[in-house]
Amino acid sequence: MSWDSEYDIICVGSGVGGLSAALTGAQQGASVLVLDKFHLIGGVSALSSGQLWPGPTHLSKAEGIEDNDSDAQAYINHLSQGFSDPDLRESYLAQCRGAIKYFTDTIGLELQVIKDLPDYYYPAVKGSAPQGRFLEIKPFPATKLPGEWASKILTSPYGDGFSYVTGNEFVSMQLKGGEHVGTVLQRHVKADERTSGAGLAAAQVYAALQRGVKIQPSTEVVDLVVEGGRITGVIARDASSSSTKRIRARLGVLLATGGYDLQPNMVRGFDNLINAGNMTIPTITGDHLTLAAKVGAVPYPAHPSALTAIFVGYQIPGEIIYGKPTWRLLLPGAPHSFIVNSRGNRFANDSFYPDVSAKAGRYDGQEQGLVNWPAWLVFDHNFVEKYNLLPAYPGQPLPQGIAVSSDTLRGLAEVAEIDADGLLSTAERFNGFCKTGVDEDFGRGSLPWGTIMTGDYSLPHPSFAELAKAPFYAVKLHRVTVGVPTAGLPTNGDGSVISAAGHVVPGLYATGNSAAYRDWGAGYNSGVANMRGMLYGYKASLHMVKEAGL
Ligand SMILES: Cc1cc2nc3c(=O)[nH]c(=O)nc-3n(C[C@H](O)[C@H](O)[C@H](O)COP(=O)(O)OP(=O)(O)OC[C@H]3O[C@@H](n4cnc5c(N)ncnc54)[C@H](O)[C@@H]3O)c2cc1C
């Protein structure tokens, strides 16, 4: 076997999963190569909010936040709904705590607790906590990166707000009257201090370069090399020359290629979505599934697709990002707005996206159809003036072509093709709830996470204000995937890939969204996707190094 080059560990993909494995491997003395087929580094992770959900850690303890594993475990157990592997589920908290300690104390990542941010399902689910379990990177000055690296790492193409405001700054503005995020944003942009997923990616790349990791964008792994049943390397194609190289991985290959958002057959088959939009980069094409098929590993749907973290959102006609049409996710719940189905009825707690998403996908046995889909975000002109829909800021015209409008709700129902009587009676009932701040139908405003994200704390009831000011608008919603899939490769606690026959595939590992959510199960809490990437990237490299006796 002849090789063009040799490393100990090859990480395929440069999101949080690939970079966490690279950092761990290099720290343990291995030579590491990270390959990414996109021309920028960081994956979907870098355009995410960058939240991590490890449960209680040394960081929450240092903040004096009271929490315990027994509560956090009860929360995880409930969300799993019996779908996760009990061993993986029960070791998640301790393993995450170890991984976070390693990345802060040994690698030097500066993580912080997002204060006052409750678990998604607090206080509805037993064991949920009012704060302390979310972490994020502190603002990272990209000026620290050597050479051209600052321009080679992804920041969000959906607006600077995603990459230059911390969760702490946002929550503090919402709950404590802290500095407005617009001011914070300008300061961070000026200093190129990256936050959220972009900050995490920049900090990880910085630490990886310091440890001699070789990071190569625009290089696609097109095949795995198998010798005697063991994965010993990859075939990689250079985007600029289309030539391929055989690269040896002495200890192992880690698949960290994310989900399969840009592969419509997989989205339809595994996520049960037809014509879904997505908010990821164009290279999230399920390559881990096709690559690992060669060695007998088959995709494992870890939980019901109805509970996958799929958002609702909207599409701006003609908006192209990275050469492809794109969608924008909607965090619903701003005052002066609600969400209805074609009967004009609200159907969910529309201040909390997981409830909207799960119920939008509800299949009705009696009607043999999706009773709540299509759905519309309906709002009045107050909404446009005070909150609006990105990329439009408050008071600006709505992005062109996304909404229909009318001076009356009845007229709006007609142009949107929503049942008019249904919409009028929904608006009347909703406006009534706005007086009391109590949604007697769907508990809008009852989950603080949702209220913090979109509520207006200058109002007596932050998630409520009437639809009263003409014109009225309706935006037809889309289902939007964000790189969090239903299916992935089955792996064990070391991140080793398990074949359909139930054997570990020697030398092959997977992490992040490439690894099935067997540890977690059904329900989702923000921060779990990024945390799993970090955790099993770390575990995989530790395992490779240990096996090799390095
Ligand atoms: C707007 C938004 C906000 C989000 N916020 C959060 C959050 O706060 N917390 C959270 O936990 N999750 C969040 N998510 C989801 C989360 O970002 C993803 O689930 C996570 O980033 C996946 O990480 P990963 O390492 O598995 O893969 P990714 O970060 O998706 O990286 C995969 C990489 O693999 C590369 N690749 C693919 N195929 C190949 C190949 N054949 N050869 C070489 N390279 C390849 C891709 O180019 C890509 O760079 C958010 C997502 C979005 C869109």
TrEMBL record:
Cofactor(s) of this protein: FAD
Single Gene Ontology MF annotation: oxidoreductase activity
UniProt keyword Transport present: no
Keywords (A to Z) from UniProt: FAD, Flavoprotein, Oxidoreductase
Flavoprotein is among the record's keywords: yes
A GO BP annotation: steroid metabolic process
Domain FAD-dependent oxidoreductase 2 FAD-binding stretches: 8-516
Domain of life of the source: Eukaryota
Protein known as: Fumarate reductase/succinate dehydrogenase flavo protein-like protein
Organism in which the protein naturally occurs: Lophium mytilinum
